[in-house]
Amino acid sequence: MNKFKVAVIGCTGMVGQRFITLLENHPWFQLTAVAASPRSAGKSYEEAVSGRWAMKTPIPKESRSLVILDAQADVEKIAGMVDFAFCAVDMKKEEIRALEETYAKAECPIISNNSAHRWTDDVPMIVPELNPEHAQIIPFQRKRLGTTRGFIAVKSNCSIQSYAPLLSPLMKAGYDIDRVLACTYQAISGAGKTFERWPEMVDNLIPYIGGEEEKSEQEPLKVWGHIEDGKILKAASPSITAQCLRVPVSDGHTAAVFVKFAEGKKPTEEQIKAIWTQFRGRAQELELPSAPKQFIHYFEEPDRPQAKLDRDLEGGMAITAGRLRPDSQYDYKFVGLSHNTLRGAAGGGVLLAELLCAEGYIDHKA
Length: 366
Fold this sequence. Notes:
Blueprint: E1 4-9, H1 14-23, E2 29-36, H2 45-49, H3 61-64, E3 69-70, H4 75-81, E4 84-87, H5 93-105, E5 110-112, H6 138-145, E6 152-154, H7 164-172, E7 177-186, H8 212-223, E8 226-228, E9 231-233, E10 239-246, E11 253-261, H9 269-278, H10 282-285, E12 296-299, H11 307-310, H12 313-316, E13 319-326, E14 332-338, H13 342-358
Parallel strand pairs: 1-2, 1-4, 2-3, 4-5, 5-6, 7-10, 12-13
Antiparallel strand pairs: 7-11, 8-9, 11-14, 13-14
């Protein structure tokens, strides 16, 4: 196929680096432009990330000699070079909102890893297997922005990927959920760090991640919401309470989840396991390049899933679960796991872009 030309804005940070590695030899996408802050602009990509490359694989050959452009000063140039762009910049929220809208108005669709536009009511926040229909809001957003091609779509926070994908199939199967308690144990790469850069995390646990609990409690409700009058209205239920902890793990967010179903809606354990293992979302139906063949994997072993053993399942794009059992105060409790920089960040962004290309929301520039 004629590959889509792609830019990575915010290419030097950890998520940006992950985008660069995922685009290497991608069957649909060709990395064409990279952009970052003025201090990196003008350097080759290899020069800019020298000494700070955090990925386990080498810098891809196709990106090494690309000259980094200024993410803010070179908007028109970048928009003219590519069909769409991934955005993973490290800036203040209001600056990110303005920057992403500037690209969209320059007719460059933006697939954002940032949180700045997650609560903009005509910006879809899509997990491709859970709410692909939210892409239908894009024409309303284009009308507001005055664009024909340009728009912004975002992926959700990495923390909710370890439990929302396990709740959605149950709700889709007709088992309404009343309330959820989720305790997340989040890897240091979620803060853009490695143990070398953050030695304080060795043999340590920090019971606070700024803003994470609010995101964990609210973002699933937008994913489960519906479109009405050109806006995405969040779901009224279930009620979610969350506690988020940073733990000494390199990659992989784990969640301990407690679920109470609505009156008369409680499935059996075997029904839950069957729903999880048989669930197929739009990404699987379309056989998107980055989609896991099986979205959810359930482990019967009592000590699984484990971050070190299971985070890379299906290229880090699968969700794993285990320890499903009855609870004395809720109906059930279980453990979920997702790879936070793959499924939860750059990989989720690439999969979202594949979905939007496959569904015709992103096209090749004339």
